[in-house]
Amino acid sequence: MGVLDALRPKWKHSDADVRHSAIAEIDDPAVLVEMVIGDGEWFVRHKAFAALRAMKPDEAHYRRLMRESDDEEIRRKTVKAMTDEAELERAAKEDRYRYVRDAAEHRLNEIRSGIWDNLEK
Predict the structure, then answer these.
(1) Cα(32)–Cα(110) distance, integer angstroms
(2) Under a CB-based contact definition with an 8 Å cutoff, are residues 29 and 61 in contact?
(3) Please, are residues 36 and 74 in contact by the beta-carbon 8 Å criterion?
(4) 39: pLDDT confidence band, cut at 50, 70 and 90?
(5) 117 against 67, higher pLDDT
(6) How confident is the model at residue 16 (pLDDT cuts 50, 70, 90)?
(7) Which domain holds residue 82?
(8) Radius of gyration for the chain, computed over Cα atoms and rounded to the nearest angstrom
(9) Residue 90 and residue 42 share a domain
(10) Quick check: 104 and 77 in contact, CB under 8 A?
């Protein structure tokens, strides 16, 4: 543990296991988005994304992930959680990952068909 670790929040700690554990204490979706985008460890990014999704955040957080995350799997999971049709259309046409483009197209079809509408009530 470095000297700076004592001064910074746990989610910025140099030890990935500490950052991973800190996720349970975070109640700010913006902090979780920062972790998903910037953490160097995949297991921290994915746990932070799961915590973010459980919060049911504002769609703006998902849009930011789509713009800034380089993690293909995070991007795919993000489109599955989105409802913003314009952003999903953009992802279906322009995303750099085919897997994400396909997931965005599938999500658009779900939204437009109303397939989940009766289950959510």
Answers:
(1) 27
(2) yes
(3) yes
(4) very high
(5) 67
(6) very high
(7) 60-121
(8) 16
(9) no
(10) no
Query: Do the beta carbons of residue 35 and residue 51 sit within 8 Å?
Result: no
Contact 56, 85 (CB under 8 A): no
Gap between the Cα atoms of 83 and 107, Å rounded? 8
Contact 69, 97 (CB under 8 A): no
Same domain for 26 and 77, yes or no, is no
For the chain, the residue count is 121
For the chain, how many structural domains are there in total?
Answer: 2
Are 21 and 50 in the same domain? yes
d(CA 40, CA 44) in angstroms, rounded, equals 8
Q: Which amino acid is it at 97? A: Y
Report the distance separating Cα 7 and Cα 105, nearest Å: 45
pLDDT tens for each residue of 78-117: 999 999 999 999 999 999 999 999 999 999 999 999 877 7
Q: Are 48 and 23 in contact (CB under 8 A)?
A: yes
Which of these, 94, 86, 93, lies nearest to 111 by C-alpha position?
86
